[in-house]
Amino acid sequence: MPLNTQILLDNRPVGEAVASNFKRVATETPALADGQVLVRHHYLSLDPYMRGRMNDSKSYAASQPLGEVMIGGTAGEVVESRHPKFAVGDQVVGMGGWQQYSVVNAAEPGALRKVDTSHIPLSAYLGAVGMPGVTAWYGLVKIIAPKAGETLVVSAATGAVGSAFAALAKARGCRVVGIAGGPDKCAYAVDELGFDACIDYKLHPTALSLSKALKGACPNGIDGYFENVGGIVLDAVLSRMNAFGRIAVCGMIAGYNGEPLPMANPALILINRLKVEGFIVSEHMEVWPEALKELGTLVATGQLRARETIAQGIESAPEAFLGLLKGKNFGKQLVKL
Amino acid sequence: MPLNTQILLDNRPVGEAVASNFKRVATETPALADGQVLVRHHYLSLDPYMRGRMNDSKSYAASQPLGEVMIGGTAGEVVESRHPKFAVGDQVVGMGGWQQYSVVNAAEPGALRKVDTSHIPLSAYLGAVGMPGVTAWYGLVKIIAPKAGETLVVSAATGAVGSAFAALAKARGCRVVGIAGGPDKCAYAVDELGFDACIDYKLHPTALSLSKALKGACPNGIDGYFENVGGIVLDAVLSRMNAFGRIAVCGMIAGYNGEPLPMANPALILINRLKVEGFIVSEHMEVWPEALKELGTLVATGQLRARETIAQGIESAPEAFLGLLKGKNFGKQLVKL
User: Fold this and answer.
1) CB < 8 Å & 24+ apart, contacts of A211-215
2) Which domain holds residue B138?
């Protein structure tokens, strides 16, 4: 029975999330029952949605229960199996949470997925070829539904979702403009991720200033927007949307810590006949095979090369997560276990 | 050549629209060219969208030019014709504007439509069986797309659009809750229009108070909302929307006069995976035949009996219109010419 270090949610944030919201414990992994598999995690995925789960209030998914292992996507390998379809050594992806090992009821649909690491690195299954990639795919393909030649904008552009969004949008012949924080991220977006332009929101403290920058980067207006942040970024983009524009609302990280952030001028939804639609990718499992196929091809052929920031060891997960919420990561935030 | 009294837009409102924004003139109607028809208007339709057209700013349609006859739907009869398909005495509906007569190029698609007044009164073609009715139909059928048993809410419930919305929604087996101003309108909504409940927004000066009232009237939450007003009414409804709810944004009359009205908590779009979509019914002419057929049947069979407020004489149009913007009308606002 290996010793399993786990990170639990100990108490809920009041305002900003802090390290003391988490608690580290170590337990022995239990003996397996029939149909169960023991997975040793190599990578833990850290994602903005986790902040929403930490709140008690009605969020866009169930609350993370106190005293339980934090929810999270994991990639690893089978180290013990009592399920006929999984063998020791299999590379697998699941929702193992913030811990070194997980015991999985492998028969549960979707609980554990075997992956092929011959052309795609294991960690990519937590990013471009995983939930973040499918998130980008769903918002782009099913909500924005762009035509070639249209101009699309994505916030948090160099993150796991934004990176995939850019590759998917370029493959559809669109102009893609990113919004990111700082000159390094913006240069990376254009030089490495294929964005046509990227705006540093840190240079634009007001919606008006950001709106002017968007006008320069989007001379034909904005037809589609993939929203990861909310707040004045949303206000600025709304002011540049073309008639019949579509906005896929995936995240509003700007408002996670406290008071709701208003939308300054919702009448623009009417004036420009916009469609604004929120979604959670886990509610659309039917698209995953198609999306993962396209994303896997983009990664395997080198058309999508997303950067990763990798923290070392399960103990580093809370600080790495808090840094992610402040945009300190560069690309996909992982923890190597 | 009959003398034609016209109301022009003389200057644009600064803040609230006022009577002095308009100017009355009289001119002789010109001689007809080939293909033209002279229509004597019996009814002029007054509608909230006209307020948006009075602004110079980018609105949800082209601005009304200064010094020209105010835009508006009209119903009347042909009094002179140089078009083979129109005869003197034909009952017709068009966009004749705020004037007693109009000269119409009858060959222009959609410029003039002959109507049958044997089972449907002429004025209904400006309301339930006209643009407002189709507006309700489009938002309900194409955006909200309700299932039987769902709960739907409409603001400005006793207006021309709200009345039609109620009849169309009841025909689809939905629970329909109205929001209107004052006890008389609310009683009328329930007693005459078929609403299951109606909330008097004048009793609820805050979004929180209105939200509580909505909770009482919508015990199963709100699945679809037809938005005519914006402001705190929108905030209150948003707070009661169910997951996967749909909001058809048809009007935001609350914000026509000045500063944009913010949406307090747009994160609810994400949290409840809502679809919020703005539309202008004149951009969806393809649905008009199907919509008008259903609406005409509802009126002819007495299932939709919408009230009208009728001002007398073209001179009364400005004051009647300003009253409409303040909710002084009861049902469809018309001017009898």
Assistant:
1) A211/A235, A211/A236, A211/A239, A211/A240, A214/A153, A214/A177, A214/A239, A214/A240, A215/A240
2) 131-282
Residues in chain A: 337
A148-158 CB burial, b ≥16 within 10 A, e <16? eebbbbbbbbb
B302 pLDDT higher than 70: yes
Given an 8 Å threshold on Cβ–Cβ distance, is A283 in contact with B275?
no
The verdict on residue A292 lying in a domain is: no
Residue A31 is given by DSSP the state P
pLDDT score, position B2: 84
Q: Quick one: which H or E segment has residue B109?
A: none
Q: Does A258 touch chain B (CB under 8 A)?
A: no
pLDDT in tens, A124-174: 999 999 999 999 999 999 999 999 999 999 999 999 999 999 999 999 999
Q: Are A60 and A93 part of one and the same domain? A: yes
Name residues 259-298 of chain A within 8 A of B (Cβ): 260-267, 269-280, 283
Q: For residue range A23-47, list pLDDT tens digits in order.
A: 999 999 999 999 999 999 999 999 9
A136 and A254 inside one domain: yes
Q: Are residues B231 and B317 in the same domain?
A: no
| Interface predicted TM-score (ipTM) of this complex, two decimals | 0.90
Q: Residue B286: pLDDT above 70?
A: yes
Which of A49, A263, A284 to mutate against chain B (most B CBs within 10 Å)? A263
Q: Identify whether B295 is part of a domain.
A: no
| Inter-chain touch A278–B261, beta carbons under 8 Å | no
The reply to whether A94 and A228 lie within a common domain is no
Comparing C-alpha atoms, which of A269, A204, A209 is closest to residue A241? A269
CATH of the domain at A100: 3.90.180.10
CB contact under 8 A, A269 and B261: no
CB contact under 8 A, A283 and B273: yes
CB pairs under 8 A between A and B: 99
Distance of CA B295 to the CA centre of its chain: 14
A283 CB neighbours in chain B (<8 A) are 273
Residue B182 lies in a domain: yes
The count of structural domains within chain A is: 2
Give the closest of A60, A263, A277 to B266, CB-based.
A263
Nearest to B264 among A60, A262, A273 (CB): A262
Check whether residue B71 and residue B143 sit in a common domain.
no
What pLDDT, on the 0 to 100 scale, is given for residue B110? 83
Chain B neighbors of A252, CB-CB under 8 A: 266-267, 270
pLDDT at B60: 58
Full-model pTM: 0.91
Does residue A238 share a domain with residue A197?
yes
Higher-pLDDT residue of A79 and A57 is: A79
